[in-house]
Amino acid sequence: MLERKPRPTIREENEKALLEAAERVFAKHGFAGATTAAIARNAGMPKANLHYYFATKEGLYRAVIERVLNAWLNAASSFDASEDACEALSAYICAKMDLARAMPLASRIWSAEIMRGAPIIQDFLDTTLSQWVAKREAAVRRWIAAGKLKPIEPKVLFYMIWATTQQYANAAHEIATLNGGEPLDDAAFERAKRQVVATILGGVAA
Amino acid sequence: MLERKPRPTIREENEKALLEAAERVFAKHGFAGATTAAIARNAGMPKANLHYYFATKEGLYRAVIERVLNAWLNAASSFDASEDACEALSAYICAKMDLARAMPLASRIWSAEIMRGAPIIQDFLDTTLSQWVAKREAAVRRWIAAGKLKPIEPKVLFYMIWATTQQYANAAHEIATLNGGEPLDDAAFERAKRQVVATILGGVAA
DNA sequence: GTCTATAATCGGATAGAC
DNA sequence: GTCTATCCGATTATAGAC
Asked: Looking at CB atoms within 10 Å, which of A180, B49, B107, B108 has the fewest?
């Protein structure tokens, strides 16, 4: 009987180390600013080994972006936690806040990719994201029609949620500076999360 | 009698052209991804001329960042447009939205600099921005004490405003994709601005 | 002040021994 | 599968003629 992942192969271990190192370096320096030498060093191996597992820097970046994209989709699914407007929006905002907290590097890479004009994930924007938005726009419009939410263009609401939650990852350094030089601790972050939920819901709930 | 700027000197004209070209290229490709050759070409001059006016790429970047910083401070001043909570916040949000619309390149450079950990503008965060925040935090707390606003940590409110307004510059490409491939026209942008103001004020006004 | 040519360096990618 | 040495294109910056 073949066991499933009893012990990772050398290939699996090295690819994992490279992907995690790449996430750190791409998040810190951007695609152009990241060097394969820095990524390899971060993963604890010589530069040539990186190219053995990932032929090109762009290929490695694509692999990192795929991981990031899965995290985004996973958080997005919490929008459908409930048919109740406030519950669904709360769950979604909390999930996005938690994602920014748990995976700040992924959040930054995502934002940087969007800011660059999404050269790698354009097809995702055109397909999966467009469909996701279309479906949830319909839900928001139903809630508005049912008198649960104030009239608002759903996309304006989505953009506000995306921007505000990602801010806690993207601007973590600025936030830390304004927090006396220390990153937000768990208590401060939970307070911020509650206040973000309360403010957005307070702004849109009818 | 010496006239004041009747005709810009060659130096002034070329520096201006370079700064504007640099803003475009840095906004598009980030600091590391921007090449001095591309900036010079964009400004319509050979690469060597760029280095005649700005010795190093980083020096040119610093000069660009200073322009961006002035734009930020200018928009920030509209927070003090009124002693009334809702008027002040409305004016500030509108000014930030207009800034994102009028100067998307500057907004993107600013966000990218923050995301990188503010290597160039750290001293601005420590001094001017910290003071700006401290003073306006006090104003928000007074409004809360006076019953004009719901209780909220002022920084949570500022982060929401900063993130949401900058989203319209930073994610312009994503927004265009979700708008059928076309950037928001003026009417759509004005609607978004009104809704952002209404939602945030609805969320915090007592 | 302008511009061509070039120096000097960096970084992605590969060759080839182990 | 690993790693040293190296190639080579790209990029910052400068030299020096005009």
From this structure: A180
